[in-house]
Amino acid sequence: MNGSSVREGGTNYTAFMDTTYEEFRSVASRFNVSKSTCWDILQRTSKRLLNVNALYGIIKWPTEEEALLTMQSFERRSHFPGILGCIDGSHIKILAPQHSPNSYVNRKHFHSILVQGVCNHKRMFIDLYAGEPGSLHDSNLFSKSDLCERIENGTVQFYNNSHLVGDLAYKLSTSLIVGFKNLGNLTEMQINFNKKLNANRVEIENAFAFLKGRFRRLKYVETVRLDFVSLFTVTAAVLHNACIMNGDLPNQYVNLDEELEEERQNNAIDAGNHRNIRNNAIAKRLNIMHALPL
User: Fold this and answer.
1) How far is Cα 7 from Cα 233, in angstroms, rounded to an integer?
2) Per-residue pLDDT tens over the stretch 43-61
3) In sequence order, what are the residues at sequence separation of 6 or more whose Cβ sits closer than 8 angstroms to the Cβ of residue 61?
4) Residues 49, 62: one domain?
5) What residues make up the domain containing 100?
6) Domain for residue 6, yes or no?
7) 16 in a domain, yes or no?
8) Domain for residue 29, yes or no?
């Protein structure tokens, strides 16, 4: 798929494609079919959409030309150079699974699966990985994702010394830039760096907020079929990208402030201290910091 990643982690899969909380029972009744038929149609349609994505690259890693446009757009906003995409994890609330339910309890004390997304300046996903248990930390989710593997083996391109940006849940590297941890002793330049990084990084939170605002069933998936959960989440992201590509933005029916606040509440983390950071990653971050206008 042209180096793109649309993967379902572990054995997991996600939920309904409607933009309301309508139950399958009422949908089945309206169209005079059984509930199991509805599930079958949804599953077959989702898998067909993944085939469409594989053929047309609706979710895909950017080409060099696309990457340059993304970097230029982010840099125009706050002078922060080289941003190829923004990365973060998001929780999809689910019913308690029948097997190993405690593994799916996150730090907000509800059952969930995790979705790791990378988006561009248009809030379109360029990489997605879904299905790991909600108890997993974002940094561990990244380590388990095939994006991490492809970065390590060099099969994804970071054009012109570009990088992703993420929050403090991630470990600093030359391909993933994070801010300085604030222990009350940050310099003015470090504070400025964090401010400009976060001004761009918020786009992945916006992307997830728009995704869940458009496909509201992703807020709570009432099914014990974990094999469906990731599949439908990824399918929703494919449709999310397709809508944006065709100029259909969710602004008219999504309260972004409300969705964004919920997204931040669900993804609040205790990042902790990361050690053994590579010297060249530190140097790259310092070079960016010194180049940023105050």
Assistant:
1) 10
2) 899 999 999 999 999 999 9
3) 2, 3, 4, 5, 126, 127, 156, 157
4) no
5) 58-291
6) no
7) no
8) yes
